[in-house]
Design goal:
By secondary structure, the chain is of the alpha/beta class. It is built from 11 helices and 8 strands. The protein has one domain: TIM Barrel (Alpha-Beta Barrel), CATH 3.20.20.70. The protein has helices at 18-31, 49-58, 84-89, 100-104, 110-122, 135-139, 143-154, 184-202, 204-207, 220-227, 244-252; strands at residues 7-11, 39-43, 64-67, 94-97, 126-131, 166-170, 211-215, 234-237. It has an 8-stranded parallel barrel, surrounded by 5 helices. Bound molecules: phosphoenolpyruvate.
């Protein structure tokens, strides 16, 4: 099996202010200063990107700066949007594409997610493609169909050479921010299918480079069992990433994998 370094991202969503973002960033950087067994990223709101970058640099932290979203076009009359180059200019290294809140609250469709992901990967950044079914889709037995559609559409025209910078986050919508999480068996089942889809699309060698992570109510007390299977390469963390000690504990739960 390919040696994939775990990845753990802390998605702060539309939380924090200038002061609490600084405190949280300092807390996370200090708690994880000597951890190099996982790639770690934090995703603050756009207005705090430069602030967080400067704290991470001052602390000598290897934590990567992430952005929660991006627009696919390089520049122009797109009020309210930001481009890949703008994010790079702010020190961003990794971008989330197609988070379920953007899909289901803000109405993003697969083709827009695909355009964003292509811009991110072609721009040399790491891209996280989020996929996952809603509760009614799971209950109707449609998990595989939904995930397959989001994967195929999301990865249209992505070149195999970019796959080492692709991360797929399986995030069942019913588990995000709800306190309900999928069982490790549920996660392994879907991750195995995702790996199979990647292999079908890009060949085994390219597919083996992609990290497949889980997101959905991961906390310090359930991270161990969720991250233990070899099919799980880490996690995308929402609520627990807002408490430095909890986020650090979740990251440490990946330690034994590497
Ligand atoms: C997320 O935002 O991607 C997420 C998984 O959130 P939470 O951990 O709060 O469920």
């Amino acid at each position: 099996m390919a040696d994939r370094k775990p990845f753990v991202g802390g998605n702060w969503k539309m939380n924090t202010n200038r002061s609490s973002a600084s405190d949280l960033c300092r807390g996370v950087a200090d708690a994880l200063l000597r951890v190099d067994t996982a790639d770690i990223a934090v995703f603050p709101p756009f207005p705090y990107l430069l602030l967080v970058r400067s704290i991470l640099r001052d602390r000598g932290s290897s934590i990567r700066l992430g952005a929660q979203d991006v627009y696919s076009r390089p520049d122009g009359a797109y009020t309210g949007e930001v481009s890949v180059e703008m994010l790079k200019d702010c020190g961003v290294e990794v971008v989330i594409c197609g988070h379920s809140e953007r899909r289901h609250v803000l109405g993003e469709k697969d083709d827009l997610v695909n355009q964003k992901l292509r811009a991110v990967l072609e721009g040399g950044l790491w891209g996280i493609l989020c996929v996952g079914e809603r509760l009614e889709e799971r209950e109707a037995g449609h998990t595989d169909v939904v995930v397959q559609r989001q994967m195929k559409n999301g990865l249209t025209d992505i070149a195999g050479q970019h796959l080492a910078r692709l991360i797929v986050a399986y995030e069942p919508v019913w588990a995000i921010g709800t306190g309900k999480n999928a069982t490790p068996q549920d996660v392994v089942e879907v991750h195995t299918k995702i790996r199979g889809l990647l292999t079908g699309l890009f060949g085994a060698e390219n597919a083996a480079r992609v990290r497949i992570i889980y997101g959905g109510s991961v906390k310090p007390d359930n991270a161990g069992p969720l991250f233990a299977p070899p099919e799980v390469d880490g996690g995308l963390i929402g609520g627990a990433s807002l408490v430095a000690g909890d986020f650090a504990a979740v990251v440490r739960a990946t330690t034994r994998k590497h």
